[in-house]
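It is worth pausing here to work through a concrete case rather than discussing structure prediction in the abstract. The textbook approach is simple: state the sequence, then state the predicted structure, then interpret. We follow exactly that order.
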Amino acid sequence: MEEHVTPVPLLTADQLAKLPARARDVVEYRKSGLSLNHIQGCPADCSYCIRHTYGIWDMREPRALMSDAEAVEQLVNHRYFQPHVTPIQVFNRATDPFVPKVKAHTFAVLEDLDRRGLGNHVLVITRYRVTPEDCARLNALTSIKVTLLFTYSGIADRRLEPFPSEVAETSLRTAAALARSYRTVFYWRPLVPGINDTSEHLAKAVELSRIAHATVFTGLFYRDEIAQYYRDNGLPEPYDETARRKIVPEALERRILDAFADSNGGPLFRKTSCAVSFVHELPDYNGHYGIRSELCDICPLQQVKLCAQAHRVPAEDTLRSIATRLPEAQELRVIDISEQAAIVAGLDDEQPRYYLQHALGFQIHDQRHPHRSRRHGRADIGWDTTDATKAST
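Step two, the predicted structure:
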């Protein structure tokens, strides 16, 4: 029997008003989905947590901004939400969905979405304990497409990551063995040169990749706020500069690919949406097939074929028509549409771009953020920056 856990306390109106503006916005579009975050605060204290950038790093005890029912209503009635289309992420920005105090809220959200008959992808990212009872409850979901992504780094330095990776490993083994209606992904991150990239680390990752339905590898978000926290606390700074995108140096990627090829690792992906789509036997919802020369060389052949069959280059009129649904996309300018991607301008931030991308299943790139060849949306750090700039991502 699952032990009874008291629901997370609600913040008062005064406490809500003191939160930073971004923290008060419980529905936010991120690249891999529309993110629901009405529970905030995490005890794991990972030094690189994205909470630094939302001004809520000091929130370690989970607190609720509203009820679960109110949050789901906000999500499904949000202007960016498209039934059966928009990928959803639950509690991926400010807490862990399987923290004991949070878990009841996670299941309340999942079961509410499922009762509505929605067929959307739902991504649940965790490093905490997942029990056989949790797996049975997840297997009872019949409509939404649930993927559990188990964050694992193998970082041993408890100053950087106090919560041990061994917990995520155990949870992955449990969840993968019991999976029926949901799927599992070994979410290997953040990879940082000199910290968790030894031959032993790579060999362990190959081992765990054979357990999960798929593996995604990625690097560190090293934003200004995180770098300042490292300096203030005397932590070893992994890079000399910060970046807008995750950092995966070219030499590190090459070692990862070689390790998986040499040791017959499980299905490996560079992009979260590629792995999530693969495990549900669906084409990539982010339309990465358009830039396949940079990404699809490591994908299973059957997945490449599936994405190729679904690949459709949208007409400019179609793109503009979809953009009219969003007030913030009224200034959209279509610069170019190619087999690879649509290049657009006139969007204030990335959220409407993600909406367009998921509506079309096709890459939508912002002209303001040029993307270097072969870097597929990653930071320039650790790559040869003399190559020609391509379409942005």
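Step three, interpretation. Confidence is low (pLDDT under 50) at residues 1-5, 388-393. The longest strand covers residues 145-152.
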